[in-house]
TrEMBL record:
<dbReference type="InterPro" id="IPR037673">
    <property type="entry name" value="MSC/AndL"/>
</dbReference>
<dbReference type="InterPro" id="IPR036019">
    <property type="entry name" value="MscL_channel"/>
</dbReference>
<feature type="transmembrane region" description="Helical">
    <location>
        <begin position="12"/>
        <end position="35"/>
    </location>
</feature>
<keyword id="KW-1133">Transmembrane helix</keyword>
<keyword id="KW-0407">Ion channel</keyword>
<comment type="similarity">
    <text>Belongs to the MscL family.</text>
</comment>
<protein>
    <recommendedName>
        <fullName>Large-conductance mechanosensitive channel</fullName>
    </recommendedName>
</protein>
<dbReference type="InterPro" id="IPR001185">
    <property type="entry name" value="MS_channel"/>
</dbReference>
<comment type="subunit">
    <text>Homopentamer.</text>
</comment>
<feature type="transmembrane region" description="Helical">
    <location>
        <begin position="68"/>
        <end position="91"/>
    </location>
</feature>
<keyword id="KW-1003">Cell membrane</keyword>
<dbReference type="Pfam" id="PF01741">
    <property type="entry name" value="MscL"/>
</dbReference>
<keyword id="KW-0406">Ion transport</keyword>
<keyword id="KW-0812">Transmembrane</keyword>
<keyword id="KW-0472">Membrane</keyword>
<keyword id="KW-0813">Transport</keyword>
<comment type="function">
    <text>Channel that opens in response to stretch forces in the membrane lipid bilayer. May participate in the regulation of osmotic pressure changes within the cell.</text>
</comment>
Length: 136
């Protein structure tokens, strides 16, 4: 049981995933502070309440008004896009470039794969091959 657990933990995929989660959490914390401290106040200058996070839309109700936190939703979307942008440019794009360079060094060429044939196209090819075989 311990041996199986040790093999599972020492696999590259598990460790890579753990590192990705930790780095993602760190990036998220940094980007969240930047969005809350810099971007939200700049956008807050253009909303009625002056603060993007506290911007709400009030909908009159039968017993009480409902307040939709549209500013918090916009702020969360901006936060997500900022984190995704940083992760892409800081991690994904450099890793893709690195893999391309490694593939070029190894002499692996990127050839175009043949398109996947439909069942009908495949059956037509088989029929043609069988006809050609019978004629020979």
């Amino acid at each position: 049981m311990i041996k199986g657990f040790k093999e599972f933990i020492t696999r590259g995929n598990v460790i890579d995933f753990a590192v990705a989660v930790v780095i993602g959490a760190a990036f998220t914390a940094i980007i969240t502070v930047i969005v809350k401290s810099l971007i939200d106040p700049l956008l807050g200058a253009f909303v009625p309440s002056g603060d993007l996070g506290s911007w709400t839309i009030t909908i009159p109700g039968l017993f009480a008004d409902a307040h939709i936190g549209i500013g918090a939703i916009i702020s969360a979307i901006i936060n997500f896009l900022a984190v995704a942008l940083v992760v892409y440019f800081a991690l994904v794009m450099p890793m893709n470039k690195f893999k391309e360079r490694q593939a070029r060094k190894a002499g692996v060429s990127e050839t175009e794969e043949e398109p996947v044939l439909t069942e009908q196209q495949l059956l037509v090819q088989i029929r043609d091959l069988l006809d050609k075989q019978q004629q020979s």
